[in-house]
Structure formats: C-alpha cells, structure tokens
Amino acid sequence: MSAPGKTEPTELIVRARTGDADAWGDLYREYAPAIFRFCRRAMPTREDAEDATMEIFMKLRDKIGQYDQGRSFTAWLYKVAANHCWDLLRRRKVRQGKETEDVTEVPLETPDPNQLERLIEERTSEEVRKALDKLGPRARMALVMRYYSDMSYDEIADALGVRRAFVGVVLLRARHELRQALGENTVLAAGGTR
Amino acid sequence: LNEPEITTNRHVDEMTLLLYVERQLDRELAQEVSLHTQTCTKCLNLLRALDRESRLLTRAMFEEDEPLPARLAEFRGVVRRSMQWMWGVVFGLAVLGVYALYTEYIEPWERQLDQAGFGSTNLLSLLVFQGAFWKGWQSMFTLFEFVALAALAGFGLFAFRKYLKRGSALAVMFASLGLAVAMAAPASATETRSGDTVDVGKDEIIKTDLFFSGHHLRLEGTVDGDVYAFGQQVDVPGHITGDLICFAQSARISGRVDGNIRSFTNNITVSGTVGRNVTAFNEVFNLDPNGTIGHGLTVFTQTVTLDGKVGRDFLAFFQQATLSGKIDGSMRAKGDSLTISSGAEIDGKAQFEGPKPASVSTNAKLAFPLEYKLVEHRSRMNRGAGYYIWRVIWTAAYVLFGIVLFSLMPKFSREAVELGEHYGASFGLGVLVLFGVPIAAFIACITIIGLFIVLSTLLLWLVVLWTSEIIVGTIVGQWLLGRSHEFWPMALRMAVGFAVVRIITSIPFIGGWAAFVAVLWGMGAISLALYRRLQPVIAPNIPPVPMGPIGTPLPPNTTVGGLQSA
User: Fold this and answer.
1) What ipTM does this complex have?
2) Which residue of B has its CA nearest to A3?
3) pTM > 0.80: yes or no
C-alpha cells in the first residue's frame, strides 16, 4: 500500500487499464497487503478476509476501466473494498436473521475524560484489535473505513447505506461499543457525570 | 447547535467534540468549540481523549500483525494462466466421458428405438409434435410460446427480486401461471365420462377426445379423437380415430384404433386393428391371430405372445416370448426365453440376446438367419476388467468435473460442503429433492403448467444428482485430511474423498446402498446451499438512533452538538 504522502503508481495504473497483465500483477503486489489488512479488520475470520481480498481484486480487475484517473486510486480501491465487505457482511447478517442486531436505541452516556484517558493509556494495539473483533459488523466496518482507510463521511454514508448525518452517530456508537469491549464499560458508564 | 453562544458554565457534548476532532464541524461552530475548550478543562480533556482514541484506533489497525497469506501472494489470474494445461486435460477427459456416456447408454437406446419404428428422428419431436400421443399438441404451440415467455418473465423477476417488493413479484408470477393455465382450457376440449361401469354405445359417435374412467369401461361406438382410459377392465370393440392411452388391469382391443396405443396394464390383448404403433408396459401382452399392428410394436413385458401381424419393426424386452405371427420389419429381442414357432415369419433382420439360444422351428420363415448374442448373468462378485477400467475413467472424469466446479463456483461449493455436515437437514432435504422433484415435474407435465419449466427443473435436478457424490467426496476428504479453504488443498480432499466414495460404492451388494445414501446426502447439501443462496437480501433499514443530548435527526452536511448544563 502506498504510504500516506507517497505518490500513487500512475504509470502502472494506466498500463493495467490497458490490460497489461504484468502491470496488473505489480499493482496487485503493491496493494494486496493493505487490502488484506482492511479485510482482516472488517471481516470476522481470516478465511473470510482471504476470500474477500481475492474477490475484491477480481472485481477491481473487471472495473479498472471505470476508474476516474482524476481521483485517488487508493481511495477508489478502498471504496470498492468497503462496498464489497459490507455487502458480504450484510448478506450474512440477513441470512442469520441479525439485521438489526447493532441498531440499538440505548442512549449513550458521556464518558469521564480521565477514565477514558486511562483506558487509552493502558490498552495496547493488540487489545484494541481483539476488541474490534467483538464489535457488531456495522460498528467494526465504520471504524475500519474511518480510521484505517481514512474514508470521508460521505463515502462511509454511501458504503453503509445511511444518511451522512448519521455517520457521526454510527462512529460514536462504535467507539462506545469498543470501550465496552475493552472491558471498561462499567467504569466509564459510572463516570458519566455530566 | 441551538445555543447562540458557548459559556463557561456549560459543556459541549461528546458527539460535537468528536465531530470537532474529525473536522466535520463548520467554521463558526468549530470556533465556538475551540473558544469553549480554552476555558473548560473538562471539555478540553475529553477532546484530547477522543483525539488520542482516534490515533490509538488508527495505529492498532495499521500495525501489521499478520503477513499476507501464501494463497494471496500472487493474483489468481496469474495462477490460472500457469494452470492452463490443466484445462486441456479437463477438456480431453470430458470428451472421453461424453463418448463413454454416448456409447454405453445413448447409442444402444437410439438403435433400439429405431428398431421399434420410432425412426431416426428424435423421440421428443415424434411424441410431442407429430401427435403420437395427442394430435391436440398442434394447437398448443401458442400456449407453449406463452408459457415459455411467462417462465422467462418469472425467472427475470426472480433474478431481480431484490429490487422488487416480494408481494408484487409473487403476484406477477402467479398471474402469469394463472393465465397460462387458463389458456390451456380451450385447447384441450375433452369429454369426460366416469362411473362404475361406463359404456359408449354401439351407435354413439363422440366427436372429441374422451377421458374415460371407471371400474369397467366398454367402448362400442366411435370416438373421433383420442381416448384416455383409466379402469380395472377396458374393452374396445369400437372405433377410435386417434390414440388410445390406457392405464388398466386388463385391456382388450378387439375393435379398431387408427392411431397409436400406449398401454400401462397388467395384461393386454390386441385382436383388432391398430393403425400405427403400439407401446406396451405390461406383465402379459398378446397379439391374437386376428390382431394387426400397422407400424411398430415395442413391449416391455414378462410374457409376450405374438400370433398376429406387425407392419414394421418389433422391439421387445421380456422374460418369455412366443412368436407365431408375421413381422414385416425387423426384430430385436432381449429376454430369457424365445420360441419362434412354425407359423412365424420375419421379413427383416432378427436379433436375439439372451442366456440361451432361441428355439426356432424349421418351418419358420426368416428372411435372414437369426443373430444370437449370448448374455451371461454375471455375478456382481465377478465383474469384468472393463467394469473397473471404466469405473476408474469415470472417477477421473468426476474429479476433474469437481475441480472445474470448485473453480467456477468456489463459494457455493464451499457452502455446500459445509452444509453437508448438517447431516439431518441434508438427508431430509435429499429425500425430498430426489423423489419430490421428479414427481412434481411429472404432475406439472400432466397439468401442462409449462414444459419449459419442467425441463429446466429436471435438468437442474440431474446436474445436482451428478454433483452430489463430489460434495460427499469432499466431506469425506475433509474427514481424512482435515479442513482447508484453499483451492488446491480442497481439490485434493475432494479427489481423495471421492475416490474413497467410489471404492465403497463399488463393493458388491452394499455399494448400491452406499451410493444411494451418498446421493441423498449430496443432493440435500447442494439443495440446502441453493436454498440459502436464494434467500432474498433485504436492504438495511436503519431507524434513527437517538442520542443523549441530540433528540432529532441530523441534517446532512451541517454540524451537530450543543451545550449542556454543568
């Protein structure tokens, strides 16, 4: 994956668009690790992430002609990946009859800043990743789109099929879910003194 | 934000602070929040905590904790190119499989049907479009076209069902079918007669098709059309200008049938005249000395006695047959015992296959010497080498078919294998699909709902039947070698498991039952996967999520937040 600030491989993209298999292979090698990591964060199991990665690149190869070269290739790539992963999660959720599992009506309590600070201080990246795995699909997907792919609120709204105005709500709820999963929910809830 | 200004004795809610951190607030509101946090320590601390939380999330997600799996090291398209030679082998073996299928099954049947007077044209067109069963088919063309279109429309609706409301799609489907069935009525003008004893009097003339059902049926008059007879005893001393389709315990045709006779009876005796062909599935078939069949005779029976005349070819499968009549065409017979008596006459070639040679009277008139082929009742324990060679070839062809299937439909195949491990559901559904689908198709054929749908369903049923052992093989392979979701390891498991299944199903006596169980199991698993796949996907309908301080939905592209009492 191109690191932030790193220029995109424009020439490779142009060649891949013309059907150059070698260029496509290079592009794949360049972006596959990042997309796999995206899928690994978004999908519940490693096998699902592997399948999704392969399917995303198959889709990309078919769709690369539709890519608008005036825009960021990385952003486009993540958009396709996010749409695909969310589609898979949504279908699975519908099949399992859990379509509304992560839409709750419970109001959120504002955390105590000091306790939140302490929680952030004490938790490692690995613990955060494990906690992410415990979240509902929508919450996990929203966090991954925002904090891994750096997608805009408009793009997240588009991918999740919600109004733009709800993206903040979804993200905030996801953070609360994450905090709960990190094991500090009781402390934080108790600290809601405002 | 509803409050006009931020004062030091009120706090900003978490949502607004998050949007501030995320740079989603408009300039004016962002300035207000900024101003507020310069004087409010609590809000400033929460703002900083939220920002740090964002960074923790990003860091946690970007850290590379798992390397790219080996199967993703190269794009599968590249792998596919390197495996292109495999497709050549697959194609070659597929051709071999088709050849084997043709030479083993299709060609012999074609020859036998040809012998039976069905000619070299295809059977379907003969039965359906040349009116062998029912001349009314001619008037059904328009209906078939309509049904085909309705079926296509149905499939179209089915494919795009997620864009349609379920109710309206179903309504259109049922309306189409209803219209199709309604249109069938005028095309099938048929007189119906039923009762314990049903007669068509000697002087009576029925100018349409007749549907005849009862305990004892007797047709002495004339039917200018086809007759469908269902009864314990059926006597036809009268005249039928069309075909006779007869389901009975006992039938006697002493009158005249200008068309064909198709009989499914315990015993049938023809002592009258049949203008065209006779096809009979019976225990006993007799063609009396006075009986005449204008075209061919095909019988699948236990005992056949042929004393009358057959205008064309004679094809018979029987246990015991006695011929003393005349066959103007050729004869092809297969059975346990054949006796050709002195009065017999065969103008064409005569072939017989059985465990012992036919007993041929020296006075019988045969245009060609009788060709005899010995058929040994080989014990299942004593199968020839050819059986096992073909078994190996078929196994290889199946394995390659499985590889193609896994390659074309990887997810579906995996789902079917996984669902196969729900044993109860798989077997239950397998029984239902194996027996239910052909029965339903048969009923649909009778009621003329749509030949297109029936044929498509049966084709799909056959594909599922052929594929069932592959799925079972993969499950068995996974038992033996452990699970894998990668393509080639899974293909290896399928190959090993399938070979094991084929070995088990080749064991005499228990093999047949094992194959039956495998078919039930595999069909159930595939059907279950199909069922899951066909479940409609409903778009998520997200209700507004109430927030603590924010009670109303947020307008797009504007900011949110507000002040709360300290």
Assistant:
1) 0.85
2) B62
3) no
